[in-house]
Structures are given as C-alpha cells and as structure tokens.
Amino acid sequence: GAVVSQHPSRVICKSGTSVKIECRSLDFQATTMFWYRQFPKQSLMLMATSNEGSKATYEQGVEKDKFLINHASLTLSTLTVTSAHPEDSSFYICSARHEARFYNEQFFGPGTRLTVL
Amino acid sequence: AQSVTQLDSHVSVSEGTPVLLRCNYSSSYSPSLFWYVQHPNKGLQLLLKYTSAATLVKGINGFEAEFKKSETSFHLTKPSAHMSDAAEYFCVVIPTSGGSYIPTFGRGTSLIVHP
C-alpha cells in the first residue's frame, strides 16, 4: 500500500518559536503533497498544495509567511509554523498523491497535534 | 466547482443495528468519491472509493456505499454496527478532470454507537 508518515506526532512549544512538521511518503514518490488544518470537531481545511521543486500554492486566507512549505524531494514536504501563537494550535494533516500511479487518490498522514503555550 | 453535503452532523445507533451515513455531492466533472474514517487524534483511514467502476462499492470493516448519479448521492452503509465503529466519517469528492485534483471534504458525521 501507500504509506504517509508525519513527524512529530505531537509537539508543544512556547509562543514565538517556530515549529517544523515533516511529511514523508514512505513507499512511493509523491508528485503532489497537501497540507490541511483541522480544528476540534470540524472538517479538514486545505491550507496549501505543493509540488516537488516548485513553490506551494496557498489557499485564500492562509498566510504564506506564517506557514512555510518546502517540498524538497519527491518523498518529503515540510510545514514550518513561524513565530507560533496559541491560535495556531491545531491538528495538522498532510496527504500525498502520485497521479500516474494512483490517479487522483490521496494518502493521508497520521497527523501532528500542535499546542502553542 | 464542487461541493459535498453530509446531511447529518451526528448519527446515533445501537450496537448490532444498521448504519446509514448520508452524502450528497455536486461536481462540474465526473468525480471520484471517497469515504474516510477518523478516530480521535488520528489521521484519516480510507474506507472505500468510487472511481467510475461498479456503482456499489465494498470497503473495509463491512462498510459499503452506492454511487447514484441520478440522486448525486454516495451514502455509506453497514448492516450491523460495532462499538469500534464509533468515529468521525468524512465524504470526499475529487474531480477526475479539469486540471485540478483538489479534494472537497464534507463537514463530517460523528457516528455514536450505544451498547
């Protein structure tokens, strides 16, 4: 199957610090990766779409300078929350796809719980 | 443009009784449709998917869904609920053409299973 991992699974940080979350496709090369944010009892909200080697495309209302996305290779994308504040506390989920191999299906990571104190 | 409507925010059933989680969609292009389950503080697990093959799709853990184009529906069912089925369920639509494969999520349905 197609497996996507995220690291760390949970992180607690102080306000003002930056936090990096990694998303890896373990057994396939991901042409596209997606980053989502999920608030308690709510659905997933797409933050950005990233293709390997190019700049991420951010959804409306998502600050690109706040949420830095780097898709450095076909198996790794990172989301860095810069100068984190308590309102950034949330559950962040990534997903990955490979169009030629899996068509439009996406495979989701297990999520990262971010708590900003 | 596309949208997904999960008609119920909560569904409550007794263990051993049937489950019905409703999903209606709209899409400018022929869509692929997915159902995912999410347990607390976990990622999304694929239950089943429709990708223009058989309209009745069987998934894991005894779940199945029927794609009805005339009704623009993709309802999820299970004959007999287990306690372990209690979770959040998401219906997702992804277009199959048009150049964008951005998924659209329903708001989710919380399935509550009583002993």
Outline:
With 117 residues, chain A is mainly beta. Chain A has one helix and eleven strands. In chain A, 3% of the residues lie in helices and 51% in strands.
Structural account:
The complex is a heterodimer of chains A (117) and B (115). In chain A, the strands form two sheets. In chain A, strands 2, 4, 5, 6, 9, 10 and 11 form a seven-stranded mixed beta sheet that branches. A four-stranded antiparallel beta sheet of chain A has the order 1-3-8-7, with no helix packed on it. Helix content of chain A is 3%, strand content 51%. Chain A is mostly beta strands. Chain A starts with a strand and ends with a strand. Chain A is globular and about 40 Å long. Chain B has 115 residues and is mainly beta. In chain B, strands 2, 5, 6, 10, 11 and 12 form a six-stranded mixed beta sheet that branches. A four-stranded antiparallel beta sheet of chain B has the order 3-9-8-7, with no helix packed on it. In chain B, a hairpin with a 5-residue loop joins strand 7 (56-58) and strand 8 (64-68). The chains are: A mainly beta (117), B mainly beta (115).
